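Hey, I was hoping to borrow your eyes for a little while. There's a protein on my desk that I can't quite get my head around. The fold is given in discrete form, as structure tokens running alongside the sequence. I'd be grateful if you could look everything over and explain what you see. Here's the protein in full, and shout if anything looks odd to you:
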Amino acid sequence: MSAVLQPSPGKRKPAALPSPAAANAAAASFATLTAGLDYLEAADVEQVRKAYRFADEAHLGQIRNSGEPYITHPIAVAAQCAEWKLDAQALMAALLHDAIEDCGVTKPELIERFGAPVAELVDGLTKLDKLQFNTREESQAESFRKMLLAMARDVRVILIKLADRTHNMRTLDDVAREKWARISSETLEIYAPIAHRLGLNQTYRELQELAFRHLRPWRYQTLTKAVTKARSRRRDLIQKVQREVEAAFGAAGMEVRIAGREKTLYSIYRKMDEKHLSFAQVTDIYGFRVIVPDITACYTALGILHQMYKPVPGRFKDHIAIPKLNGYQSLHTTLVGPSGVNVEFQMRTEAMHVVAESGVAAHWLYKARDPSGAGGNGMGTQWLQSLLDIQHETRDAAEFWDHVKIDLFPDAVYVFTPKSQIMALPRGATLVDFAYAIHSDVGDHTIAGRINGEQVPLRTELKNGDIVEVVTAPVSTPNPAWLGFVRTGRARSKIRHHLKTLAHAESQELGHKLLTQALRAEGMEKLPDDDEAHHALWEKLLRFTGNRTQAELLTDLGLGKRIASIVAKRLMTLLAESGERPDALLITRERYSAHETVSQGVVSLDGSENASVQYAPCCRPIPGDEIVGYLGRGEGLVVHATDCAVAKRLQHKDSERFIAVEWSDDPVRAFATSVVVTVANGKGVLARVAAALAAAEADITHVDMGEDAAQDATDLRFVIAVRDRTHLSAVLRNLKRTPSVLRARRTRPANSAS
């Protein structure tokens, strides 16, 4: 098919055919477009002409597959946009849409020549062109459609893209035949449904027909012949129905416009394929559109038709009361006409007809016909009316498009995996959500991530069209901090499950330590094995504690739900019943050392304990402090400083829950503690204090300057991470030597400071 635009209906073709060179020159001239721009102001037409000249110069020397100058394609795209009555900016972008991609023109150059809005439209089209749909899965096709819609910040980008695809399909005969299948499939799966979503019915039907003709040429030809035959056979029948319907409306005194409608070849083929019908069994090939003055007349027309012919049960649809998402409104009914042939009728108003054919583009059509916006009042479509209001009030294309997108699909972002699979995630989803959406193992072992090739933090929110890559490591585990920023329920539940499992494993290990320690105090070196010889003994102990398994009992001990000394005494009684005797020397040694609080069975802490041990925030103990351990009910072991006021209160009322704990000789991490630095207020004080802390190798984890207005002397409260008391002393000395620092001290409960 030639890329030369068809002449408008009002023009006649010349009698003599022009030479190919003359035809090319005519198709490449601005005059081809001028006839369709009568709805624009003269100044706007001049702007479009400037864009044409620039595009013509940029594409100079480029030839299409058909042998025509390349500029004929942008002109054809702009002509389609002009049919939809799009504004001057959209027409300029249509003419320039291949300039960045094919001609090396830059976005700043377009901004300078034509303004930012036009450059943004061209840039948006260029980005959409880079997307490659390369999978046949239906769900992926749906995601790809949504991604195209989501990535376009302005509805005009999608409209220009559809005009571009329509012209490419019209000229597909000039493309190598091996490309037909891929381009036609993409058109059927991606672009035709988008046209349908946006209510562009004519474009939707044309894209389907053109794609079907190139994808299934033999079936297309066969169906064409069958429909042509049926048309000639049934011509008399259809004409009879039309005469009878016109007479019935005339008798009722109703002014109507009746137009014949024939089902497209592709929709006939799809119906035959999906319902396994022969061509003869497809009965609703023909139909009529009845255009009436107002909504009430739609229902009146329905009543007249139902009195003439019998309706087919279950085939009536009221899309006026319940419009489709894309704003489509009509009454549909299928009637049994003469000779038992089914005929479909659609009743709609003129405004509904414009929406049905042009959809989202209709708001520009109405704006062009009635700049005051009043013409939209009779449209009867809330959805489209709200779009018209937005367009009229704000003239903001971005806001208009956001409104469209809210109705078209849920609030989601669509991103690519490195293998070009598309994943849909809730808006605000992060790299961690993406990792868990791939697989829970990927999420659990995530350590870093890249978006579009750049390394970014794990909490980075994803945007439409991002290519996301996750870096994993076998040693990595979920971080509790992730729960603060993940958006998906799947990620949240997987992180919680992993942390819970980890906490149970650590609590079980701590429970084993505690029970062994308590048993040593009763004179037994170690726990009895869970073997056949001791099976009955463990069964009795579990009945006593109410646990189902040994692992559950040890976990409960670690979480503080059971007291280790009570369980140990019961276990010792059971062991004595089975003939095992305690070691008197071990009892003496354990009880003496326990009294001296240097028991060898004491729980040793080095900071590697994760969920099973907490360091109390009320006193923030660090290595070198005297400490005690409190087995809170269900919260594991909580470590307090011995002189902590909270610990003293707990000891007074719950002393049996305290156990002996001590610091390991080699702690494996730094511990948080609180310091208060009193400074003479002035410029750069906070920076100097922070530098002093950094020089002393103390990490700042929190800083609080209070909410009071700055005084001559101000307290800065820091939470810092230090290795032990010796390190803390060095940090405080460093702070005291810093200019402007008046005092520096550790804050502790019970008024003890060092």
Remarks:
- Residues 368-408 form one domain.
- The first strand starts at residue 257 and ends at 262.
- The longest helix spans residues 217-251.
